[in-house]
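Moderator note: this is an archived Q&A kept for reference. The question asked for a predicted structure of one protein chain; the sequence and the answer are reproduced below.
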Amino acid sequence: MPLEFSQLLEQVDTMGRALAHRNASAAEKVKLAMQSLAESCDLDPIRARIERVRQSNISGYRGATPLDEPICGPYPGQPEPEQAILTAVDGSQVYPDPHGQTLYYLTNIGRFQYCSGLPYPPEPFTHPELVYHDSKLQDRDGRMITNQTVNARRTLLEMQALAETGWAYYQQAQETGQWTPVALLHDGNLLKVFGANEVADAAKIEAGYLRALQQIRDSGALLAGYVDRPRGSSLISLLHLLHLPDDGITETALRSNGELEGVTDEMLFRRILRPGERSALLALNSPQNREYKQHDDDLEIAFFYVNVALPDEGPKIARVDVPMSVARNPARVNFLHGLLLAQCAIQGRKRYPYVLTRADELAYVNGQDRAQLDELIRIAMLQNDLAAEQSNKLQTKGLARGERRQHRLRA
């Protein structure tokens, strides 16, 4: 039966009042965060406080660490580079369905190339891959792999596609002697956590991911991860740490952000960054990022926030992740800053990188695509004398959802 909206009206109304109260409370906390940030221009005491935590037995600090830029002020927008080759990659997937006619999963990687200041047309590319072997569909205990495993494998394929692209441009430049700056754009953060409890072969996937990051570094391409509507609070955690008394830096105190709890970095920068401006470069103080750094000093992930809004509209804050090999070079950071602002301007008020939009369009697998793929699989199974039949549960779901009828009792 359809959703009973009449039962939800009161709950939705209560939710609206709760959100309004929460926003009013957050506004006061954001003012405190702005004041705290304005007072935190000297990097030496900030670094000393972070180092004190690192040298102690306290493991609860997951806040930001500044690089070489004062964190208290914004940094101006940059112009679009005169020439650049920008390639974005995105992926989608169809998860294995235990109630389908046979077990499989699909990944589809979309890649879109855009040349700025060069007389070359955009170039789309897709690579679908159908996975159906038992060795890929089962973990080492013989259980069906999780959706998280499919996500992790898709993420690896995305980064490998970027690495292959960067390396191809590098080899081309070596052969021709002509070098054009190359930027590679990933949808989402660059610091990945492949949980061993949820992801089969997590260690193998992570090793492949790190190799792809190294290949991108070796190709000379500039890698960035673009996070739309970020929800992190690592800078807020840093501000909380800086205002704790010396004897108040404890494991318990660092488990929350104290009086700033509930405030995100995005909330803060909506009040600070004008259109086009970015924040200082920061690094995340996390065990995963330390592992990246220990593996290769160039692979530690840094990030900055940027307001990609037009001058006449409200703030639109994005987070941009970059490897340390990019973050340590101001010219490379400015290049990416200007390139991303130009990309976000292409689609008007949508304010999202054009190349990522196109890569997402190329990768997306809709319901009609899924149905057509299932039909092709059904035909292939029948041609090879294999039974192609959905489970009874799935068939009854189809009856209930797709063929609803109204039944009347006769008097």
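Archived answer notes: Residues 138 and 145 are 5 Å apart (CA to CA).
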